[in-house]
Amino acid sequence: MLTSKGQKLLLFGTIVAYCLIGIEIIIMISPFALYFYSVYAPILTFLSSSPLTSWTTEFFLPHMVFLQDPLILGISYLQVFLVIGLALFFTAAVPLYWGRFTGKGVVSISFYSKIRHPQYLFLAISGFGLLLYWPRFIILIFFVTMLYVYYLLARNEEWRMKQEEPGAYEQYMENIPMFLPGEPGGKIFKVLFGWITPKWIGILVSYVIVMVLSIVIAMGIRDYSVKKLPMVQVEKGVTLVSVFERPAKEVNSLYQHVLDSDEVREFLQNHKEVNLAYIMPGDFFLTALVTEEDRRFSDEIVERFPEVLEWHEHKFKGGLGKFFKIFYNFIGTLGGLPTDYDVERFIFVSVVDSKGQRVPQERLFDLGLKRIPALLVDYDPFEEKIVSIIQTSHEHKWGSIPMPTF
User: Fold this and answer.
1) For helices 168-175 and 137-164, what crossing angle results, to 10°?
2) pTM of the model
C-alpha cells in the first residue's frame, strides 16, 4: 500500500497536473500568462508537432463558434458542475475536519452518512464541469486518469482507517457505500472484470477500456459539432463560418461587400491557400484565438471599460488588480450589454495539413491541421464601406500554441 507521504504526493501531483491544463483558460488571459506558457507551451507544441499526438491538443466541443443546437447547448449547461462540485467539496470538508480536530473517530455525519468518500466524488463532479468548459482531449485523458487515481487513494485511505479505527471502520464500510448509493460502479466492475485476477489487472483493463470509450465518445461529439457548424461555401474555394449563427443569405451578402474591395480580391487571387474565413463582431472577445491583431472596440465598450485599451496593450503588466477590475466591471453589465455589430470582422485563414498543403473544404476542421491567419478585413455594414484591411502576422495571440478554432 502507499505510505501516507506517497499518497499525498500522488494526490497532489494528479490534481496539480489536471489543474494546470484545466485552468488554462483562466491563466491565459491573466498577467501570469507569459510565465505559464513558458512552461506549458512547449508541452502543447510538442504534442501538436506529431500526427500521432496532435489530436490530444484539439477540442471536442465548440468553443469559439456559438451553436444553438439543443444537444450542444445541453452539454454546455453541464459546465455548471465545475462550481457545484467545488462548493460541495468545501462543504464536505467541514464535518471531516471537525471530526479530526475533536477526535470523534470515524466521521459518519452529513455527506459521510451516505457515502464514504464525498470529497473525491465532488472533485470528480467539479473536474467534469471543467472538462466541458475547456474540452481538450488531453484534459479528457487526465480526467479519466484522475478518477482512477481517486479510487486508488480512497482504497489506501480505507486501509489506513482500518489501522486507526479497527472494527469501527469495518462496520462503517459495511453500511455505507463508497462513492454512490447502491455501488453501481462496483457492481458493473464485478460483472465485467470481476473474473480477472489479480484484481489490479482487472482495474488496469477497465481503465484502458474506459479511456478508449471516453475518447471514442468525445470524437463522436466533435464530429457532430463540426457538422453543425454554420458553414457557407462561396466562390474562390473559401468557406465562411460566422461565430454567431446567421442566415446564409446574410453571410453571403456581407462577403460580397468585402469582395468589392480590389485589395481583398487581389489578395485572395494571389493566396490560393486561403480557404476559410471567420465572421465576427469587431470586438469579439475570442478574436485572439485566431489572430494577434487587436480587437476593434466600440465607443460604448471603451466608455464602460476605460482600462481595457491599456490592458490589451500591456497584457503582462500591471498585476492582477487591473485585470480583475475589468472582470468585475464586466460581470456588472452581464445581460445588459449586447454584442456590438458596428463592425463586421472577416479573418481569412489558410487551413493546411502537416506538410503545409491546402486542405479541401470538407476537411477544414479535421484533427491535426494548422490554421494560419492571413488577412483581417473590418467592414462597416451601416456605412457600407471597408474600415481597414490588415495582412496579419500569421499567428494568434499565443503564437504557435494550438488554440480552439471552432
Assistant:
1) 140
2) 0.82
**Rounded Cα distance, 299 and 264, in Å:** 27
Query: Is 189 in contact with 207 (CB distance < 8 Å)?
Result: no
Query: Measured between alpha carbons, how far is 109 from 55 in angstroms, rounded to an integer?
Result: 45
Query: Which domains are delineated in the chain?
Result: 4-227 (1.20.120), 231-298+340-391 (3.10.450)
* Encoded amino acid at 82, one letter: L
At 304 the pLDDT is 57
Q: What is the pLDDT of residues 180-218, one digit of tens each?
A: 888 898 899 899 988 988 998 999 999 999 999 999 999
- Measured CA to CA, the distance from residue 47 to residue 84 in angstroms comes to 32
Residues 308, 314, 318, 321, CA torsion sign: positive
Instruction: Spell out the SS3 assignment of the chain.
Output: CCCHHHHHHHHHHHHHHHHHHHCHHHHCCCCCHHHHHHHHHHHHHHHHCCCCCHHHHCECCCCCCECCCHHHHHHHHHHHHHHHHHHHHHHHHHHHHHHHHHCCCCCCCHHHHCCCCHHHHHHHHHHHHHHHHCCEHHHHHHHHHHHHHHHHHHHHHHHHHHHHCCCHHHHHHHHCCCCCCCCHHHHHHHHHHCCCCCHHHHHHHHHHHHHHHHHHHHHHHHHHHHHCCCEEECHHHCEEEECECCCHHHHHHHHHHHHCCHHHHHHHHHCCCEEEEEEEECCCCCHHHCCCCCCCCCHHHHHHCCCHHHHHHCCCCCHHHHHHHHHHHHHCCCCCCCCCCCCEEEEEEEEECCCCCECCHHHCCCCCCEEEEEEEEEEECCCCEEEEEEECCCCECCECCCCCCC
Q: What is the pLDDT of residues 114-173, one digit of tens each?
A: 888 888 888 888 888 888 888 989 889 988 988 888 888 888 888 888 888 788 888 888
